[in-house]
Amino acid sequence: MIALSGLAVSLSYGVGHVMSIAGLALCVLMFPTFIARHGVEFSVPAILRRPQDVLYMFVYKLQNLRPMYFITLGLLLLENVLIAATPNLPHHIYLHGPHHDAIPSGMIAVAENGYLEGFLRFTVGAPATFYNPVISFMVYTMEIKSDIDVHQYIPGVFPRMPRKWMEIAQHSTHHYGMLAPYSMGMKLDRPDVSEALKKSNSRYPDEFTNSIRLDEALTGFKWDNPIQRRTLSLFDKYQK
Prior knowledge:
Order of helices and strands: HHHHHHHHHHHHHH
Shape: globular
Largest sheet: none
Number of helices: 14
Distance between the termini: 53 Å
Strand content: under 5%
């Protein structure tokens, strides 16, 4: 179980993430803690003595799910069927629309999202709702603080977004009138990016630091575009 917990936290956040480091450290600490409290005794694991209990475990968890869970899941599936059946209609509200109902300042960064994104984001992407209240509070606090820092696209307004970040990420373009790029729009593998900046972001996976590749492949997004050039010119003018 300790190994599974360590594997889960590593896959969820990445091995180099602070949450993974803390989680793995706690997993290691469990060995001496358990031995000190309970001693050591060799025995056949219960899962090998009664392998049928694995099935019972899943049945027990299903039986304890509230009816509203299945109603929500059914509505989610129905929603996807309707979206697939009407591709010409605007469906952005179900995914990410509420996040764009205000000007692109740090105040929009409270992890708001549409119905579909909300379900997936908090069950698969960042499942803090399954933690205990204290851990959930800490995770959400750090997430909102980080979101505020990376959504302040009004130059000269606190907290100030460094121009060097604007040069390697186009999430601002996503908020200034275009839907694309759908990712954070980062492109760290450019020749004009300093080694110091690349090193400071080395703890993040390549899929994140160069996430613009997915947009370029799927939507034909162009890094050099009028909105990005206009945004940088405004930062040059007002970010004193």
